[in-house]
UniProtKB/TrEMBL annotation:
Signal peptide: none annotated. Residues 1-21 are annotated as: Disordered. One of its GO terms (molecular function) is hydrolase activity. Pfam families: Hydrolase. It comes from the Bacteria. Its cofactor is Mg(2+). One of its GO terms (biological process) is small molecule metabolic process. Keywords: Hydrolase, Magnesium. This is HAD family hydrolase. InterPro entries: HAD-like_hydrolase (IPR051400), HAD-like_sf (IPR036412), HAD-SF_hydro_IA (IPR006439), HAD_sf (IPR023214).
Amino acid sequence: MEFALAPPRQRRTTPASPADPWSAPALRLVCLDIDDTLIDFTASSSGALAAVLGRDDLWPLWEAVTDRHVAMVVAGDLDYAAMHRTRTQSFLAEVGQPVCAEEAASFERRRLELLRRSWRLFDDVLPCLEWLRAAGVHLAAVTNASGAHQRTKLADLGLARFFDHIAIAGEMGVAKPDPVMFHTVCLALGCDPGEAVHVGDKLDTDAIGAHDAGLGAVWLDRAATGAAVPRGVHVVEGLAELPELLVCEFARVGVPAPR
Ligand SMILES: [Mg+2]
């Protein structure tokens, strides 16, 4: 595969090598969020919840309760192992069905079993990952979730083979948008943040977080909301748009990085 590279526009990092002092920044690392970026998590998760509950109108409340509990995890007040159970207990209490810890755990087991059976990739994921591998960049999955859950998901869907590094908040004790999350990934793969791009569906957690950490930032707006974004944040409405964006914004896509 050949890539049409745009001419260098401006120098934003140190030169790639002394022999090539005027080059534009190389893109050596592409980080990708997982849920709702690669995997249609909202469809699977809302479907599994509806199946367990026998009703389909409570997804917004589930999301709100989950966000509240994830914030506690990010703040260090709760660990991921406990989060699922306490989140479910809180949710069921809010809908007038209070349960004990054991019942909450049973609810979670049924929900996760259904969820695991319904995971699916967005159609544009595999072509994009194949392109990125062919382009010679490092690939990292960077996700805010529990380790076992995400690793199972990546394995089930055959995605693990694409990634040089998998960074999971539940295993690291830090989560996006904390710059430590992004910088740890760059360090692990020997890249400067200025040589990396992060792509994700959450404008604040993924795109703005990555931008603030010094990475290139791409917001994946699959719903094509047209929402305003801060200066420096790029927007795509599907992963099929990503190769062109990277080629145009990072003139030296695919400069080999040490593996
Ligand atoms: Mg996501």
